[in-house]
Amino acid sequence: MLRIIVIGTTGSGKTTFARELARRLGLPHGEQDAWNHEPNWQPAPPDRFRARVDAFTFGPAWVMDGNYGKARDIGWARADTLVWLDYPAWVVYPRIVRRTLWRVLTREELWNGNRETWRGALDADSPLRWFWRTHWRRRRETPGLAAAYPGLKLVRLRSPAEAKRWLELVAPR
């Protein structure tokens, strides 16, 4: 297990989990959101985003998080393990609400100078609304998508407690 992708619905804790896994394994961590969200929340052009994923996953060992289909064929083909944080909606949605409120109130910089705002929190593509459009669809589609990559080991974690136990077993401190 040297090339690992962490996926999950928005708010599931992909980045936090992937950072900790990378730290424990002593591997570099890549965050697809940081490569996709350019200044002023502009999405990176597909060729630029794909080049960033390509460059990061070219290395022999890494942990990357993100669900972006526009470079799945690169990352998933090079990965040996896919960790899926597949938590129920009742676990994830309150996390998104808390995280969004915190980011708006603290003006925390996310990527490339971007910050969440009250107006942005209600936007059609905000995590608060994106969740409702993608959560159940991802749960239906992910097993089939993963099956298209037969060399990829799928680890499906269905609760934060299960994820914590797995992380501790795979990469003890």
Fold and architecture overview:
By secondary structure, this protein is α/β, with parallel strands linked by helices. It has a single domain, classed as P-loop containing nucleotide triphosphate hydrolases (Rossmann fold, 3-Layer(aba) Sandwich). It is 52% helix and 16% strand. It is built from eight helices and seven strands. The strands form two sheets. A five-stranded parallel sheet has the order 2-5-1-6-7, with helices on both faces. A two-stranded antiparallel sheet has the order 3-4. Helix 5 packs across helix 7 (127-147). The longest helix has 21 residues, at 127-147. It is globular and about 45 Å long.
